[in-house]
Amino acid sequence: MDATPLYRQLAAHYLDAIRAGSLKPGDKLPSLRHLMRQHGISLSTALQLCRSMEGEGWVEARERSGYFVRRPRRLSMAPMDEPAADRAPDPAQYVGIHAKVSDFVARRRQVTEKIDLSIARGAPELYPAEALRNAMTRLLRRRPGMLAVAAPLKGQRQFREVLAQRSLRAGMTLSPEEILVTNGCIEALNLALRAVAQPGDTVAVESPTFYGLLQVLESLGLQALEIPTSPQTGLSIEALDLAIHTYDNIKAVVVVPHLQNPLGSVMPDAHKARLAHLCEQHAIPLIEDDTYSELLDAPVPPRALKSFDASGNVIYCASLHKILAPGLRLGWITAGRWQARVEMLKFAQTRNNEALSQAAAGEFMATGGFERHLRHLRGCLKAQREQTADAIAGFFPSGTRINLPPGGLQLWVELPERLSSWRVFEAALAEHIVVAPGALFSNSSRFDHYLRINCGWPYGEAVDASLRRLGAIATELCRALPGAARAPTAAPAAPARPASDGTGAAASNRASTVSAEPSSAA
Fold first, then answer.
1. What is the CATH code for 74-125+379-520?
2. Which of 157, 401, 418, 486 is the most exposed place for a label (fewest CB within 10 A)?
């Protein structure tokens, strides 16, 4: 039986008609009364149908007229360029990346009340806090002494069993004994890098890449080789192959194959197989960060890179931080032929994690509630991404480009006129709006004119106003550049007004207040 709500099923029917051209931009959707009669649904369901399509940018409400098909503004934006992969990359020394990131975090913390579009996680209300709290309460009732007993070094058994079972969905076959629980994915990456590399070694990374990884590399005294990365298919295997034949000291490769941070790219299975084979052929450890795959808009989970591993050469790292509960900081690692070394490094570095959060997460993940939560989370994030992309297309200066990923929490935005994203960050921060400048995601200057913008907050008046102002700031700065084109910003669409449709009912936009603690940036 299809568990999809009826209004979503009907919305999908009309979206298919729009995509097929049966309903064209400007065409009027059937009235609410007509929808009720045709599909035998209530007024509430008809309104949900229309509002969901409006929220995703496919239709617009016109006062006293109803709903009309519109072409989302984001679809008219030019796609981002593919990176050049025919030149050997220059190794980056990563001197000062920590200082750059520290400056960003410190300045962001100085602004207390703000619209924070710089992080990469969802709003608190998107996560099942009550279900997890209830699970913890039940556990403490059954095992009142749980907090007084240390957890096993590898992690709480039931939690690892659930992770092992779910790994089958990604094409992996793991036993609970092969899984080591960590303090988020960032500790898993630390352990993986310490297991395979020494200070002074070179590690190949995607470019651009998550700035937290750059901090880890610098803290471990590792150098990095930035490999060109496609906004669509991820790390360029051709460029990596060229780098391997150019440099003889690459000790590891780190990749995010699904919804790469910040690009949002998704690596096809054929690329994953080639990458796993290439690294195995040259005996270079391949470290997979699989933090985001559960946020991919797909009927089945993607295959993990680890599933193509034939010799234990792939180290798999993952986390629940983005998909279940940011407050729990639960991650894990399975390290192939480096498993024993990783376990000893974990023992030396942080010992075992506390058991209550693992047990509660495991108990919830073993129920159907977890899958329902993931479906709801993906649906909310999809609507928020598309609304944010439409706002950027309407509010930002002409020539702005975005990469709209098939899932996840963020958009990667290319500013026109090679406008410095750091200047945009500083100007926006003065108005209590926080974004992540592209300069954080590389030690080169190649991404200085990009922004990463979070889509994890419910789209309402506060987010809309902040994006409108951010676009105005970018437009003003573009106009001030020497010799810059004077192209005006795209005209913002007028706010949708309630559509009465003769029923007395009206469409409405929900406002939301956005705030976030800045202590755990992602």
1. 3.90.1150.10
2. 486
